[in-house]
Write a structure and sequence with these properties.
- The protein is α/β, with parallel strands linked by helices.
- It has 2 domains: 264 residues, 3-Layer(aba) Sandwich (Carbamate kinase), CATH 3.40.1160; 101 residues, PUA domain (Archaeosine Trna-guanine Transglycosylase, Chain: A, domain 4, Roll).
- Helix content is 34%, strand content 19%.
- The strands form 3 sheets. Strands 3-4-2-1-5-9-10-8 form an 8-stranded mixed β-sheet, with helices on both faces. The protein has a 6-stranded mixed β-sheet with strand order 12-11-13-14-15-16. Strands 6-7 form a two-stranded antiparallel sheet.
- Strand 1, helix 2 and strand 2 form a beta-alpha-beta unit.
- Helix 2 crosses helix 4 and helix 7 packs antiparallel against helix 10.
- The longest helix has 24 residues.
- The chain is globular.
- It starts with a helix and ends with a strand.
- 46% of the residues are buried.
- The model has no long low-confidence stretch (mean pLDDT 90).
- It binds adenosine-5'-diphosphate and the ligand N[C@@H](CCC(=O)OP(=O)(O)O)C(=O)O.
- Adenosine-5'-diphosphate binds next to strand 6 and helix 8.
- Catalyzes the transfer of a phosphate group to glutamate to form L-glutamate 5-phosphate.
- It is an enzyme of class 2 (transferase).
- GO terms for molecular function: ATP binding; glutamate 5-kinase activity; RNA binding.
- Its main location: cytoplasm.
């Protein structure tokens, strides 16, 4: 057994994520048999002394049948209505299925927007830790009913990777309707299975296609999840869940890609979209990106969008390239009067409360396309 497969076998805390297609029927209802089979595996993991955090998709897919729908509706409001119905049904099913083993479940619904705000992030972390300490199986999903298009995470693959940071999991298992990553559409006869991804070079030339019948994100978000997880990730189908947890050489094994940046900054980078843009002069870009300083009013030359203090905003170079994302300390309407001014001048002319940074370094994550760096790196 390879070292990394063995690390999965020995992983004490594991995030297991199952996609919509593995949990629901083509008729838009819960697939009780497949849920029970998956719960059998998770309960066996618990009996072997593991802590399992289960990220379950399927709320929208399980709500379609009860609403008389045959396919995923295009509009967000109907998807949210379906999620509201489906989520309750899913958790009811998990509750009775885990009860067969004397195990309790706890529902944890997260929004990306909440997660990067310090206090909410800490609360979610504390709740998950407490559930695990009490021996309860957390069942995590996005809070679909309140997420708007702008702040919506959408797929649960990256959610699972971010949850693995939140709980400091040792491994992640992604369960889908395909048994592994392929070089192209798995329905094509010339597509070959990829057994291991050691780094970006192993992904060169691979066609990462879109999702299947009810899923979201397809392979793109699974590969992205593996990149940000920071721990070993196995991608396989739900029927192979037990083999994946046992470290058997099935599915696709993704080697951990990077050391772990701070969890909150990962959410900021991967789970949010900027609610507006701040354009910087070249000196400020250097200060923020290279020297990792806070963003001060003096370096801002432009502001776009209608955001309020506390919102995530994109931080741009003079040519418009997004170089960072951060939680802004001012409303959009306040910033034009502050731009180009020194903090000392602002404090003297407008009062000491204007001495604060536009974005504090602890709330700033540098986006360089490939890696996520932040001041709060662990
Ligand atoms: N290169 C590829 N390798 C494997 N599957 C792929 C690839 N490209 C696209 N897919 C598709 O991705 C789908 C799984 O993604 P998705 O529907 O989002 O699943 P889930 O609901 O499990 O998250 C599969 O049904 C498969 O057809
Ligand atoms: N939160 C959504 C997940 C959306 C989704 O389809 O995710 P996935 O099946 O993992 O690609 C739900 O429960 O329906």
């Amino acid at each position: 057994m390879s070292d990394i497969r063995e690390a999965i076998l020995k992983a004490r805390r594991v995030v297991v994520k199952a996609g919509s297609s593995s949990l629901t029927t083509p008729q838009g209802t819960i697939d009780a048999d497949r849920i029970d089979a998956l719960v059998d595996v998770l309960a066996a993991g618990r009996a072997a002394g593991r802590e399992i955090v289960f990220v379950s998709s399927g709320a929208i897919a399980a709500g379609l049948g009860p609403l008389g729908l045959t396919r995923r509706p295009p509009d967000l409001a109907t998807q949210q209505a379906a999620a509201s119905v489906g989520q309750g049904l899913l958790v009811a099913r998990y509750t009775s299925s885990f009860a067969r083993y004397g195990l309790r479940v706890g529902q944890v619904l997260l929004t990306a927007d909440d997660m990067m705000r310090r206090a909410h992030h800490r609360n979610a972390q504390r709740t998950l830790e407490q559930l695990l300490a009490l021996g309860i199986v957390p069942i995590v999903n996005e809070n679909d009913t309140v997420a708007t298009d702008e702040i919506r995470f959408g797929d649960n693959d990256r959610l699972a990777a971010l949850v693995s940071h939140l709980v400091r999991a040792d491994a992640v298992v992604l369960l889908s309707d395909v048994d592994s990553l392929y070089t192209g559409d798995p329905a094509r006869p010339d597509s070959r299975r990829i057994a291991e991804v050691r780094g970006p070079e192993d992904l060169a030339g691979i066609e990462l296609g879109g999702s299947g019948r009810v899923g979201t994100g397809g392979m793109v978000t699974k590969v992205e999840a593996a990149r940000i997880a920071g721990v070993p990730v196995v991608l396989t189908n739900a029927a192979s869940a037990a083999a994946a947890l046992a470290g058997e050489p099935i599915g696709t094994l993704f080697h951990p890609q990077s050391r772990r940046p701070s969890t909150r900054l990962l959410w900021l980078a991967h789970a949010t979209t900027g609610q507006g843009r701040l354009v910087l002069d070249t000196g400020a870009v250097d200060a923020v990106v290279r020297r990792r300083k806070s963003l001060l009013p003096a370096g801002v030359t432009g502001v776009e969008g209608d955001f309020t203090a506390g919102d995530p905003v994109d931080v741009c170079a003079p040519d418009g390239d997004v170089v960072a994302r951060g939680l802004v300390n001012y409303d959009a309407g306040e910033i034009p009067d502050l731009m180009g001014r020194s903090t000392r001048w602002l404090a003297r002319e407008l009062g000491p409360e204007y001495e604060r940074e536009i974005i504090h370094r602890d709330d700033l994550v540098i986006l360089d396309g490939r890696s996520t760096k932040g001041q709060g790196d662990e």
